[in-house]
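Hi R.,

Here are the chain sequences for the assembly we discussed:
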Amino acid sequence: MPGAEAPLSFEEARRYLMQRARELGLGLEVYGERGVATTIQAFAGAVDEFKLSSRQGLGLRALVPGHSGQPGGSGGGAWGYAYTENLSPAALDRALETAAENAALSAPVPNAGLHAWGAPPEIDLHGEGLSGVSVQQKVDMAITLERAATQADPRVKSVPYNAYGDGESLVSVDNTQGLTREYQALHAYTYLAPLVSEDGQSKMKFGMQFSREFAQLDPTRTALDATRKSLALLGAKPAPSGRFPVVIDAECMAAFLAVFSGIFSAKQVQEGKSPLAGRLGQALGSRLVTIIDDATLPQGMNSRPFDAEGHPSAPLALLEGGVLRSYLHNSETAAQAAAEGGAAGHSTGHASRDSYRSVVGVGVSNIYMQIGELSRAGLLAQMGTGLLLTDVQGAHAGANQITGDYSLQAEGFWVQGGEVAYPLQVFTVAGNFIELLAGVQAVADDLTFTQYASGAPSVLIAELSVGGE
Amino acid sequence: MLDQDLVAEVLRAARAGGAEWAELFVEDTVTTTLKLLQGEVKDVGGGNGYGAGLRLLYGTRVVYGYTNDTSRQGLMEVARALAQSQGRAGMTTSSGAGGLDFRRRDAAPLWSIRDHPLHVGKRRKLEVARRAHVAAQTGHVKTTDVTYADVTQRMLVANSDGTWAEDERVRSRLAVRAIAEDGAARAEGYAAPGASLGLEFFDGEQPEQAGAEAARIANAMLHAGYAPAGKMPVVIGNGFGGVIFHEACGHILETTAVAKNASVFAGKLGQQIAGECVSAVDDGTIPGAWGSINIDDEGMPSERTLLIDRGVLTSFMADKVGEMQTGHRRTGSGRRQDYTYAPASRMRNTFILDGPDTPQDLIAQVGLGLYARTMGGGSVVPGTGDYNFTVNEGYMIRDGQICEAVRGAALVGNGAQDLMNISGVAGDLARGQGMCGSVSGDLPTDVGQPHILISEITVGGR
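And here is the predicted structure of the full complex:
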């Protein structure tokens, strides 16, 4: 291991790569992340695991000209990737060489190019910072969270999953067209899943609070909220099988939205993997359904002033009054759409990278559904008798992104006369997401954002297929 | 990988806050990823993951820190930050003061790599993907995605007991996704064989078989109707069908779950937890298998652990801290995705052993039920054992015969209950490859089983 060679600093490494790429006449984009984070887990009133992390890495994307293109310009070419967490000059040179070699192997794409995009919006994602927060304050936060849940009720057996976490990160994008930008972000959160049991039944419900300010975290409230929701599931009776009217609770609707957000990706559309292909301008959902993606929300979990290509962020309406208005684009899918004569050819600022290790794709930031006029109680009253759906699980396998079909493990309550009557034992719901949007009969005013970075109000659906007894 | 004096110095500094035990894990990992989208080369990438993780134990409390900077300065910075974070400075025990006499614990390799990924050109790797792409072009298949990936992880783990172990882990995998289309109907098939081997893994017909299998599933499911909902007997196919056992039973046999009072099997050692036809192992020693390891990420040699013997619980899977917390013997199961995670008790290759029946015997016993020939992924709530799995390829069984294909089926149930409801086990054991996500990250594991019959599961359909 070349551990002896001293690494460059993060900033030096970024500059080094840009300079080397220019010397070699290579088009290059470098996406960087550097961050520190703390997580603390508690068990039985004491710290169980304490973790400090410090991580940095650079993701390179090289552009080599196609048969007729110009290096680094917008004449088309092929992309190749490489990443490195080792910031020694030798390792950076290896990464650059690998990225160029990978580009040479790859198929050229039309109008591939690097750009010095316009200025991004100013968003404060860093707040007061974490420098004034002591380790002891963080430990207290973790212990308070676990203790509050454990002591809330004798039916709480343990809190097997819980943590306080925080971190500060820097994200950068540089390219050989002269773009260089970065932003800082802070995150602080608590989450827990209390295990409750009574009469041989065990239940567990996840709860979380996310913030950009340490001082805004309220662990006791988060713990009591999750405990209350877990306890409410005890005493479950078998669910019936059949088709029933359903109120989908805000958090559950937000989960649905997160699960199926990929169908709005122009990449999926162009690769023949989205059920929304060829449907721009069509009415897909009920006229009550408006879905927006907005990376500029100050408290959004996935907020960012610019995307993974450095393109400025802006709110984007995907579905407006049920009508499909736009797909999500990065610069490559936008160029492809323009080449096919489909669209204006502008990125919507939705280039995504899971990390510097991954390739550039297309992804949502904070996707949410707009509120309606009814209260949640009004929604239940309008339904009268039916199901209140509070959670769906197993979405990574039971939701088909290509067709929109889903068959998911569900959790919820039976509702009679507009009132929640009793919790239901594990059951399944099955259907199609686009049909679900079309079947929305009423929308509540209780917009809630969840741990999936998506938000929604509660909605009333005419009919869903339920598998129980 | 690192100088022994430097490691000893870092471990000593890390224990300055009173930790009883310290461990340093260092890795240098090189990855390659190649993609064929509709036969066109795209998203070729890979790179170098590089860093060190330092773990301290105060009793069973774990303190962990990591960094990408493995220079002396970088490592000492982490050591000091961790020691200071615990607030009790200056308590170094005598064993930590005088340097460490490391004993090398490199286990003899259980198998060897012939065509090492670091020494094979990318064009040869692309050729493997191309063979799978070509084989997938059958029937109504319109779209194929093929991904080739390899990983070479060099690792070192050393601790304040004097353990010093190094290893290199090589893995290769090919994933094929085929989408069949006919009018408005669409269906998807997936196959992803992998092994702890180099390019020699693809010597035979492996790429062709993977391409053909993904295409076969997509074509078979293209015109399938929706599965019905309700409780019924289910025959689960061999190979990747073992994912249910992995998720719903395997995870609660890890001491991580036992220590957190989140396992229904805690305290049931020696008791009947499954039908007598069920025996199961977690075996990390199968040469070249996807989940095999010479040593675990705590430096302990791998082993074959008998979990269930004819229905009786015989062992849990334990790491160092798990053994301290639960008293269950360490089984070489301390694993982590990379230096960013502290290790935890994790599965390696986990599967149900062969039984006396044939798959036909099992299907013949079912009046009306489901044949889940190929399973997809799923999830389980660890505290309760409730799980949910998708059936990628399913057929109705009527009067002991396999009938029409059905799509959209989900199996919903409870791991502990199902284990008691396994009423038949065939003799056609096979294994399938997966990435298992849990507390210490995503890890390669084999799941596996012969065909099994479960007398009753809730099937979610519509």
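Residues 135 and 355 of chain A are 27 Å apart (CA to CA). Chain A has ten helices and 22 strands.

Let me know if anything looks off.

Best,
T.
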